[in-house]
C-alpha cells in the first residue's frame, strides 16, 4: 500500500493516554480530521476527565464564540470513544498515537502491547518530545511502521509537528505521518531520532538553559528575561512562561537520567536552580508554581 492509499483508508485512530497532550490530540483528530477516535488510559475516571477537557475547550473557543453549533460539538464528542482496555481501543484502529508520560520503560511496554493488539500493517507513533523512537520500535515486530509524531502544546494553536524517523522507519511511514499532520492543519518537519530532543526542543534547550543560568546569577528576573526575548526576538511567549505553563521543570528533572545518557554529564545534568525548584515543589504546570513564583518566593529574598 502506498502512503496516499493508507491515509485515505484511515477511519479510526487510537490515542494512548488521555492526559493533557492525549486529549488535545484526540480533539483535533475528531474536530479537524473527522476521525473516529478511541482514547484510552489506566482508568475510566482519567479518561472522562480528558474528554471533559475536550468539551470545555469546544465550549470556550468555539460554541461560545459562534464558531460551532451545540449540535456540531456533540457530533465531535460522540466520535470520541473512551475505552479502558487498550486491546479494545486499538483492535479496530487504522493509526495509533501514543501520548503517555515521558518514561521510556513505560512506552516500550505500551509498544509491545500495541504490536500485539493492532492490526497487521497499522502504523504506531509516539508523541514523545525527546525519547528514542528506535528503542520503542525494536520491541515490536513492525519497526518499519513506527515513527515519532511530536505535537506541541497547546496542540490546537501550535502549527509544528516533528515527524521522527527511527533507524528502520520506512519512507511510506514517514510520508503517511507527514500527510496526516498536514490534514490536521499542521506544518511537519522531518528529522532522525539520533538528535536528543529532535529539532525544536534541542535548539530550545540551549536557549532555556542560558536563561536559567542568568536567573541563577541574578542578572535579571524571569519576567524581564522573558520580556527581553519576546520584544527582541518576537517570540510569542518567553521560555519561562512556556515552562511554567507546561510543567517542563518537573519533566526536566524526571528526564535527567535520559539526558545524561544521550548528551553526557556536562550537557545532560540538571541545572542546580531547576533541581532546587523541583525539590521545593515548583514544577510548573496547570495550577502549580514555577520559576516566576520561585523568584518571588525564594530567590528575590536571598
In CATH terms, what is the fold-level topology of the largest domain? Answer: Rossmann fold
Largest sheet: 8 strands, mixed
Task: Give the strand line-up of the largest sheet.
Answer: 3-2-1-4-5-6-7-8
According to DSSP, the number of beta strands is 8
Strand percentage: 5-15%
pLDDT averaged over residues: 96
Number of helices: 16
| Overall SS class | alpha/beta
Would you identify the regions where 5 or more consecutive residues have pLDDT less than 50? none
Please provide the ordered H/E string of secondary-structure elements: HEHEHHEHEHEHEEHEHHHHHHHH
Distance between the termini: 63 Å
Tally of individual domains: 2
Q: By CATH's scheme, which homologous superfamily of the largest domain applies?
A: NAD(P)-binding Rossmann-like Domain
Please compute the radius of gyration using only Cα atoms.
Answer: 20 Å
* CATH C-level name of the largest domain: Alpha Beta
How much helix is in the residues? 40-55%
Outline type: globular
CATH-derived architecture of the largest domain: 3-Layer(aba) Sandwich
Task: Tell me what you see in this structure.
The termini are far apart. The radius of gyration is 20 Å and the shape is globular. It is α/β, with parallel strands linked by helices and 302 residues long. An 8-stranded mixed β-sheet has the order 3-2-1-4-5-6-7-8, with helices on both faces. It folds into 2 domains: 3-192, NAD(P)-binding Rossmann-like Domain (Rossmann fold), CATH 3.40.50.720; 200-296, Orthogonal Bundle (N-(1-d-carboxylethyl)-l-norvaline Dehydrogenase, domain 2), CATH 1.10.1040. α12 crosses α15 (272-279). It has helices at 3-8, 20-31, 44-63, 70-78, 86-90, 104-117, 133-137, 171-183, 200-216, 222-233, 239-246, 248-254, 256-263, 265-268, 272-279, 291-297; strands spanning 12-16, 36-40, 80-82, 95-98, 123-126, 146-151, 160-165, 187-192.
Amino acid at each position: 500500500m502506498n502512503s496516499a492509499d493508507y491515509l485515505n483508508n484511515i477511519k479510526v485512530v487510537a490515542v494512548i493516554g488521555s492526559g493533557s497532550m492525549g486529549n488535545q490530540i484526540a480533539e483535533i483528530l475528531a474536530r479537524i480530521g473527522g476521525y473516529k477516535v478511541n482514547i484510552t488510559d489506566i482508568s475510566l475516571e482519567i479518561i472522562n476527565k480528558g474528554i471533559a477537557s475536550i468539551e470545555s475547550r469546544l465550549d470556550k473557543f468555539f460554541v461560545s464564540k459562534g464558531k460551532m453549533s451545540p449540535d456540531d460539538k456533540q457530533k465531535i464528542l460522540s466520535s470520541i470513544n473512551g475505552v479502558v482496555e487498550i486491546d479494545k481501543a486499538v483492535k479496530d484502529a487504522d493509526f495509533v498515537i501514543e501520548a503517555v508520560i515521558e518514561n521510556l520503560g513505560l512506552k516500550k511496554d505500551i509498544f509491545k502491547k500495541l504490536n500485539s493488539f493492532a492490526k497487521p500493517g497499522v502504523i504506531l507513533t509516539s508523541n514523545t518530545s525527546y525519547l528514542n523512537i528506535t528503542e520503542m520500535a525494536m520491541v515490536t515486530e513492525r519497526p518499519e511502521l513506527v515513527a515519532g509524531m511530536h505535537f506541541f502544546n497547546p496542540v490546537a494553536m501550535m502549527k509544528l509537528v516533528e515527524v521522527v524517523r527511527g533507524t528502520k522507519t520506512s519512507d511510506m511511514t514517514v510520508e503517511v505521518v507527514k500527510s496526516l499532520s498536514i490534514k490536521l492543519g499542521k506544518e511537519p518537519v522531518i528529522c532522525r531520532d539520533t538528535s536528543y530532543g529532535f529539532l525544536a526542543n534541542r535548539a530550545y534547550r540551549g536557549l532555556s538553559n542560558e536563561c536559567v543560568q542568568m536567573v541563577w546569577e541574578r542578572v535579571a528576573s524571569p519576567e524581564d528575561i522573558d520580556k527581553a526575548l519576546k520584544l527582541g526576538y518576537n517570540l510569542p511567549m518567553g521560555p519561562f512562561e512556556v515552562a511554567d505553563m507546561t510543567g517542563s521543570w518537573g519533566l526536566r528533572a524526571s528526564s535527567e537520567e535520559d539526558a545524561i545518557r544521550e548528551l553526557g554529564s556536562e550537557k545532560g545534568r540538571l541545572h542546580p536552580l531547576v533541581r532546587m525548584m523541583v525539590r521545593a515543589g515548583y514544577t510548573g504546570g496547570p495550577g502549580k508554581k514555577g520559576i516566576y513564583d520561585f523568584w518571588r518566593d525564594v530567590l528575590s529574598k536571598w
